[in-house]
């Protein structure tokens, strides 16, 4: 995958000094209250060790929830762990082998073709593309091709994916999966995505450029959804100069993400990994300066730090999907460089 070279030290409060169980967190510094200031790598490695310990025969939760396995594998892959190397190579070999065996060469996914399963398909597509990009894993390229083709077939009449309230986020996640497939060398037609871009505009307020607020959505949901849609469009190659709604959304989002008061507000109120993952992706796309990205990344790590420590403390990891989500969010700063998706490997 394509990653930025930005090096960021993120500190989060964690306590106590000794943990009752689970994996110990590297202790970098102790303040006057006996709190441990934990670096971003410390939290991530603690969570990945817990995830590795929870793996059984190449799967998590008995392999009955492929979406969980996809999230966990993306957490490892996003940290540089793969079947070819890293701190958790053996775990990745077992899990990667089992994951690829689940795939049907014809269907392109371990999921059924119902729209309710589109999120799982998007995550699985990204996993197999990453396996090819990182290691050239045998079988990954065939499955990337079939999964990308299946993703296009899964589009509804408006070019979207998913159903119900989460359709915008599912569509954005599928676009990221297709972008990963493009980076792996797949020919993803830009024309097929044009109908998707046009349909996504219906989710946006034409006056402000922010995502429309409906139902039980909070201000955080609006910020997260706007970030997801803007990120997906930009990574897929949409030009703001040719997309009036995107240009307006970028203007609105840039003001929000560059305001230290907004950052501080969400650091204290929102520990949702999906919120921090999407907003970090958007920050990475919108700002050339490291200042905004560093502040947003540090705040996200602090916001999720308490949940991370509680998961690491557990003798047996209770929620691998949540642990993986935190890792993906913390490492989002390294995931997608702007303009990242030029073909990276000859797929022939």
Characterize the structure shown:
With 348 residues, the chain is mostly helical. The chain has one domain (12-334): Glycosyltransferase (Alpha/alpha barrel). The chain has helices spanning 40-54, 66-77, 89-102, 118-135, 140-153, 167-183, 190-200, 219-235, 244-258, 260-269, 273-286, 290-313, 320-330; strands at residues 12-14, 36-38. The protein has a two-stranded antiparallel ribbon. It is globular.
Strand order of the largest sheet: 1-2
CATH class, anyone? Mainly Alpha
Largest beta-sheet details: 2 strands, antiparallel
**CATH architecture type:** Alpha/alpha barrel
Helix content: 55-70%
Summary?
This protein has about 350 residues and is an all-alpha fold.
Topology:
Blueprint: E1 12-14, E2 36-38, H1 40-54, H2 66-77, H3 89-102, H4 118-135, H5 140-153, H6 167-183, H7 190-200, H8 219-235, H9 244-258, H10 260-269, H11 273-286, H12 290-313, H13 320-330
Antiparallel strand pairs: 1-2
Helix pairs in contact: 1-12, 1-13, 2-3, 2-4, 2-13, 4-5, 4-6, 5-6, 6-8, 8-9, 8-11, 9-11, 10-12, 11-12, 11-13, 12-13
Tags for this model:
single chain; 348 residues; mainly alpha; Glycosyltransferase; two-stranded antiparallel sheet; disordered N terminus; disordered C terminus
